């Protein structure tokens, strides 16, 4: 479970301070699939960065499985991201010098998993997202949809508590987008907690709950 | 930081980055490391080799491996015949040459000088009385003949002249030193030793990068002996060439055990080196190290720039690595390992080129310096030390930029924000 209370984030640019998140209270239960929507500049990505511990909020609290993340050191946060969180980036964020298999295996190896087991597990998850035949391809040799599937495989290979997806279909064509959304749907069906940002109504309906964000505040919530 | 897990992941990252980087860039960096290595080893090696060449020349062509000479308070070696017999009986000795030595003068224009007011063309020098066959076996000086011929046994009233005593070979003016003019093989000159005057013929002129040869005069030993009245056969110097594989110090010690050191100085070629030579070796070595350290700074700056550019251009991916939970230390180690790889490859290529080509080639083809045949002195221990130094420097130079970039905010790195 993730619980956010009175979360605020502001950026300073010289004398000027811009408040992007203006006190958000938000809870996601284990196994939930939540979509966050809103217009550009509403603060969706900033909100996701705070929850996924990639950024430090200005104030407020984030509890993941009742653990206060504010008191964590940088090293503890890194370790927490490695073991408890998964992240699907909008632009796939694969490491170009590594094959699909190596990209997925890397976080597992960082968890001190034996190499053979890590590669077996990586292979298993790549097969799960339909890339069993593209294991040894470098990211540059894969299509956008395939790269995003590798990114999903990397994010779920270590069986995270929460999977964060930042507009995972933003750079993909319709067919690839549907493939990605179906994978997320299947993961959710298996019990994976997912928090996803999306612009597209069609894909937000894959979620159980849709949160509307505007001007740094939650302005609506619906269940499709 | 240096946990086995971080090293393992660092190695995993470094291996893939190197394997899939631009091969030309990798070759270029290794090339820079290779030249840095050569700079470290060769600059000081040539500076020391410059002196070592001179030392080798004195050893090979004058003192040989062991030299027995008169004590400081004696004018010659007492009991020389007995000592020579001891030396000849040693199985470690290959050849030996006993020399008489006396100061004297040569006058070139004594025949053409018409009156006492005309300045005599006189040169002062050391005159060596040698057995030409034995001397040549020990020092091989016959190869230095630039004019005329080497002495043969029985060449009475004939001399070999060091080239610096001939004005045409003396291209510098040294205060207090006079060379002879208008001389060549076949010309007669007047020799004066111990007040004994003799007309001798120049048989040949020899030129070497050993002052004792180029500034001395050589004649048959029996003739000089009679001129200086050394009827007891006591000589001034004995040069001993030991058999290959024999340590000169062993022969020195045997001679000392036989009591030779009671009547003569017994020294290896190293013992016989003047202190200033040893000081010069130390000075040149220091100078070489100072010059090499500049190369080391250049190498560290090169590696710093390479790793910094590499890390900066990969900042987004470093952010992603941190984002997916890869430890900062593991990422830093990956860059340290890359630096280590470049330095190691450069050093390996350098060692192969150094010992496979450069050192043997320079030994076979020494650099023709005016006072020595410069060789490249690169002892293995010194080379390994410099390899280690290069490694440590490049590792530090690789670590600092990696740390600068890795320590930046994770999200800023991913989003490319400053």
TrEMBL record, chain A:
A Pfam family recorded for this sequence: ABC_tran
GO MF term set: ATP binding; ATP hydrolysis activity; transmembrane transporter activity
Tagged with keyword Secreted: no
InterPro entries, alphabetized: AAA+_ATPase, ABC_transporter-like_ATP-bd, ABC_transporter-like_CS, MacB-like_ATP-bd, P-loop_NTPase
UniProt keyword annotations, A-Z: ATP-binding, Nucleotide-binding, Transport
Domain ABC transporter: 2-224
Any GO CC annotation of this UniProt entry: membrane protein complex
Keyword Metal-binding: no
PANTHER family: ALPHA-D-RIBOSE 1-METHYLPHOSPHONATE 5-TRIPHOSPHATE SYNTHASE SUBUNIT PHNL, LIPOPROTEIN-RELEASING SYSTEM ATP-BINDING PROTEIN LOLD
Family (UniProt): Belongs to the ABC transporter superfamily.
Protein name: ABC transporter ATP-binding permease protein
UniProtKB/TrEMBL annotation, chain B:
A matching Pfam family: MacB_PCD
Coiled coil: none
Topology of the protein relative to the lipid bilayer: Multi-pass membrane protein
Keywords: Cell membrane, Membrane, Transmembrane, Transmembrane helix
Keyword NAD: no
Residue ranges of domain MacB-like periplasmic core in the record: 47-256
Domain of life according to the entry: Bacteria
Any one Gene Ontology BP term: lipoprotein localization to outer membrane
Cell membrane in keyword set: yes
Locations listed in the record: Cell membrane
GO cellular component: plasma membrane protein complex
InterPro entries: ABC3_permease_C, Lipoprotein-release_system, MacB_PCD
Residues annotated as transmembrane: 24-51, 290-312, 333-358, 378-400
Domain ABC3 transporter permease C-terminal: start-end pairs: 290-409
The protein's name: ABC-type transport system permease component LolE
Organism: Candidatus Nomurabacteria bacterium GW2011_GWA2_43_15
């Amino acid at each position: 479970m993730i619980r956010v209370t009175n979360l605020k984030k502001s950026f300073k640019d010289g004398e000027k301070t811009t408040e992007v998140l203006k006190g958000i209270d938000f809870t996601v239960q284990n196994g939930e699939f939540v979509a966050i929507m809103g217009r550009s500049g509403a603060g969706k990505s900033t909100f996701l960065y705070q929850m996924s511990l990639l950024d430090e909020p200005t104030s407020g609290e984030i509890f993941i499985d009742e653990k206060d993340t504010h008191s964590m050191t940088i090293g503890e946060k890194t370790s927490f991201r490695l073991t408890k969180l998964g992240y699907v980036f909008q632009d796939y964020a694969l490491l170009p010098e590594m094959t699909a298999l190596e990209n997925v295996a890397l976080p597992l190896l960082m968890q001190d998993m034996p190499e053979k087991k890590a590669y077996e597990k990586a292979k298993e998850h790549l097969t799960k997202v339909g890339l069993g035949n593209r294991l040894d391809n470098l990211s540059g040799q894969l299509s956008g949809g395939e790269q995003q599937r590798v990114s999903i495989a990397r994010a779920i290979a270590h069986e995270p508590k929460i999977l964060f997806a930042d507009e995972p279909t933003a750079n993909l064509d319709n067919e690839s987008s549907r493939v990605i959304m179906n994978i997320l749907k299947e993961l959710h069906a298996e019990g994976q907690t997912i928090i996803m940002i999306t612009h597209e109504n069609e894909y937000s309906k894959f979620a159980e709950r849709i949160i509307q964000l505007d001007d740094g505040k939650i302005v609506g919530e619906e269940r499709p | 930081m240096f946990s086995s897990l971080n090293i393992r992941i660092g190695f995993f990252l470094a291996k893939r980055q190197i394997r899939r980087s631009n091969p030309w860039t990798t070759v270029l960096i290794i090339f820079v490391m290779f030249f840095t290595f050569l700079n470290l080893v060769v600059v000081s090696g040539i500076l020391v080799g410059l002196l070592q060449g001179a030392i080798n020349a004195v050893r090979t062509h004058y003192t040989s491996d062991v030299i027995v000479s008169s004590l400081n308070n004696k004018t010659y070696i007492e009991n020389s015949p007995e000592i020579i017999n001891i030396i000849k009986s040693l199985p470690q000795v290959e050849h030996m040459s006993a020399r008489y030595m006396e100061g004297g003068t040569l006058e070139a224009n004594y025949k053409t000088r018409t009156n006492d007011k005309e300045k005599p063309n006189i040169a002062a020098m050391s005159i060596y009385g040698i057995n030409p066959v034995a001397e040549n076996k020990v020092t091989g000086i016959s190869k230095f003949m630039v004019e005329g011929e080497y002495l043969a046994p029985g060449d009475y009233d004939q001399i070999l002249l060091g080239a610096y005593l001939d004005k045409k070979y003396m291209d510098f003016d040294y205060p207090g030193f006079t060379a002879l003019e208008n001389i060549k093989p076949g010309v007669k000159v007047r020799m004066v030793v111990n007040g004994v005057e003799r007309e001798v013929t120049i048989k040949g002129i020899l030129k070497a990068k050993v002052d004792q040869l180029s500034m001395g005069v050589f004649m048959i030993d029996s003739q000089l002996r009679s001129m200086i009245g050394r009827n007891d056969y006591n000589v001034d110097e004995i040069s001993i060439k030991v058999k290959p594989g024999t340590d000169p110090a062993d022969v020195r010690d045997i001679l000392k055990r036989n009591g030779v050191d009671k009547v003569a100085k017994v020294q290896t070629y190293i013992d016989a080196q003047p202190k200033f030579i040893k000081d010069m070796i130390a000075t040149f070595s220091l100078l070489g190290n100072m010059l090499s350290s500049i190369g080391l700074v250049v190498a560290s700056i090169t590696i710093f720039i390479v790793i910094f550019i590499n890390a900066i251009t990969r900042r987004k991916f470093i952010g992603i690595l941190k984002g997916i939970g890869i430890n900062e230390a593991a990422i830093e180690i990956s860059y340290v390992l890359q630096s280590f790889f470049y330095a190691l490859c450069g050093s390996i290529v350098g060692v192969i080129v150094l010992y496979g080509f450069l050192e043997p080639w320079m030994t076979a083809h020494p650099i023709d310096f005016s006072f020595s045949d410069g060789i490249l002195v690169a002892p293995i221990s010194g080379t390994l030390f410099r390899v280690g130094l290069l490694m440590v420097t490049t590792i530090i130079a690789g670590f600092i930029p990696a740390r600068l970039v890795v320590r930046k905010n994770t999200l800023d790195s991913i989003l490319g924000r400053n």
